[in-house]
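Hi R.,

Quick one: here's the Ubiquinone biosynthesis O-methyltransferase sequence you asked about.
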Amino acid sequence: MTDPVLNADQAELAKFSALAHKWWDKDSEFKPLHDINPLRLDFIEQHLPLAGQQVLDVGCGGGILSEGLALRGAQVTGIDLAEKSLKIAKLHLLESGLRVDYRLIAVEALASEAPGRFDAVTCLEMLEHVPSPASVVTACAALVRPGGWVFFSTLNRNPKSYLMAVLGAEYVLGLLPRGTHEYARFIKPSELARMARTSGLETQTLTGLHYNPLARTYRLGGDSDVNYLLACRRPE
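And here's the predicted structure, written out as tokens:
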């Protein structure tokens, strides 16, 4: 397994740290994450009702997904390596009144510390920001209990994805800051499914996430050409 100290891009951590104060500004660069959060939570609950479940949110950032999971009744642990983002996440709990256990730790390190501890692991919009996504997938698989679920979301790698997720979202529509994504790090669904299989996970569901620029709305379903979510299960 990749050394957890090495499996982090310092430039990526610095980028998110610089934006940390904006995590909960729904009109900021993080607006897309706020907009898609209900869809992500619904996708997870299609596979596992969250109430009472022990859930780990890998790459939790400022806690948008973590708080959504907690709001639906899960007992949530959120981990990240961006210290400033975690501070914002912890501060926001004072406003929301929710309970989330936030920790500054690499997923690989936590996998060694607490294997099989969680009913579900989420790793959304994170794999495309690390040097070794396969190492993260392996750690997520180790952290979930037999019979538990692991959920990933990331960006496909093809010309359409580059046109829409990089040129369109960052340069034309301005949905994301320029330089948010590095196209070479995008991951094809077949590649992610292979990483999951190698890590002992069974792929259950693949679905696309689509943005309508005219209506400014998102929806799940259809092709996985650009953004997609993958639900995997660890065999009993």
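The chain has eight helices and eight strands.

Cheers,
M.
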